[in-house]
């Protein structure tokens, strides 16, 4: 059973990438799970025709037992779970992730599953949000970034967390923001931290159009170039054998890398 965690700066498109990967894996016949760890609990909506499902933590709060939690069936049978989060200002989202994933293991996860994708929020790997890694659930991480400084800064910070935890990075995915020389900047960044770029996803309005309809691109525009790109990204992730603990850069070196690449002074 392959278990991968998708990290990256907030708003960088982790859920879009995660949901399209899940849809692509399921389309290939793989028994696939999507586990949304964002308190907003909206990452699985495109796998579920735009439907928002009750979260694990909401159901627990209402007195539900672990075994009463129902898992939603999404596109091509992708099993969708949203962990949810605490009320604003109260409790620890990370603690909720730990409780929920333990329960999922007890009640649902078994050897028949081919791949589990954890869609993990935030750009800071706090003890709580690192739970899928710290608890040894996810054993491979992919970081979504763009070529913008703040996105690479967040990616670098996540690498620092992985380094501290001794967890392997499978590679970086560039979700384009159409900045200059973006693919090669992210590729160079990946090499400098001892990793690699596994995929470049160009900006394409088909993503927004499909999301407005509550669909992934794989479902909503299966013959589009973007759907083909998501499938290729999934293949590269499945084929990926090389992973290693990343060595973060000094933040000023990221600035230097971008200055050199974009020719800005
Ligand atoms: S461990 Fe993370 S999620 Fe939990 S309270 Fe601290 S910062 Fe928030």
Protein traits:
265 residues; 8-stranded mixed β-sheet; alpha/beta; single chain
- End-to-end C-alpha gap: 48 Å
* Mean pLDDT level: 93
Helical content band: 40-55%
Count the helices. How many? 10
Sequence of strands across the biggest β-sheet: 3-4-2-5-1-6-7-8
| Bound compounds | iron/sulfur cluster
* Oligomeric state as shown: single chain
Instruction: Write the element-wise H/E pattern from the N-terminal end onward.
Output: EHEHEEHEHEHEHEHHHH
Q: Can you describe what's shown?
A:
The protein has 265 residues and is an alpha/beta fold. The chain has helices at residues 14-27, 56-61, 93-107, 131-134, 149-165, 182-192, 205-212, 217-220, 225-239, 251-262, and strands at 2-8, 32-36, 72-73, 79-82, 115-119, 140-145, 169-175, 197-201. Strands 3-4-2-5-1-6-7-8 form an eight-stranded mixed beta sheet, sandwiched between helices. α1 crosses α9, α5 (149-165) runs antiparallel to α10 (251-262) and α6 runs antiparallel to α10 (251-262). It starts with a strand and ends with a helix. The protein binds iron/sulfur cluster. Iron/sulfur cluster (SF4) binds at residues 92-95, 126-129. Iron/sulfur cluster is lined by residues 92-95, 126-129.
Short description:
With 265 residues, this protein is α/β, with parallel strands linked by helices. The chain contains ten helices and eight strands. Helix 1 (14-27) packs across helix 9, helix 5 runs antiparallel to helix 10 (251-262) and helix 6 runs antiparallel to helix 10.
Task: Describe the SSE topology.
Blueprint: E1 2-8, H1 14-27, E2 32-36, H2 56-61, E3 72-73, E4 79-82, H3 93-107, E5 115-119, H4 131-134, E6 140-145, H5 149-165, E7 169-175, H6 182-192, E8 197-201, H7 205-212, H8 217-220, H9 225-239, H10 251-262
Parallel strand pairs: 1-5, 1-6, 2-4, 2-5, 6-7, 7-8
Antiparallel strand pairs: 3-4
């Amino acid at each position: 059973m392959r278990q991968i965690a998708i990290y990256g700066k907030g708003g960088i498109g982790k859920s879009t990438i995660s949901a399209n990967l899940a849809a692509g894996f399921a389309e290939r016949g793989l028994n696939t799970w999507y586990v949304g760890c964002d308190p907003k609990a909206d990452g699985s909506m495109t796998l579920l025709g735009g439907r928002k499902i009750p979260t694990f933590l909401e159901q627990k709060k209402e007195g539900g037992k672990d075994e009463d939690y129902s898992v939603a069936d999404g596109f091509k049978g992708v099993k969708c779970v949203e962990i949810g989060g605490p009320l604003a200002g109260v409790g620890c989202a990370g603690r909720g992730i730990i409780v929920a994933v333990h329960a999922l293991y007890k009640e649902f996860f078994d050897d028949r599953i081919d791949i589990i994708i954890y869609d993990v929020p935030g750009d800071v790997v706090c003890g709580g949000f690192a739970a899928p890694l710290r608890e040894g659930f996810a054993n491979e991480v992919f970081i979504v970034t763009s070529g913008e400084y703040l996105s690479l800064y967040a990616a670098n910070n996540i690498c620092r967390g992985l380094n501290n935890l001794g967890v392997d990075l499978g590679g970086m995915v560039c979700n384009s923001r159409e900045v200059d020389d973006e693919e090669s900047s992210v590729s160079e960044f990946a090499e400098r931290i001892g990793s690699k770029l596994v995929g470049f996803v160009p900006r394409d309005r088909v993503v927004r159009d499909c999301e407005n309809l509550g669909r992934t691109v794989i479902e909503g525009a299966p013959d589009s170039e973007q759907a083909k790109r998501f499938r290729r990204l999934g293949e590269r992730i499945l084929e990926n054998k090389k992973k290693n603990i990343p060595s973060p850069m000094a933040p000023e070196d990221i600035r230097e890398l971008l200055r050199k690449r974009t020719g800005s002074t």
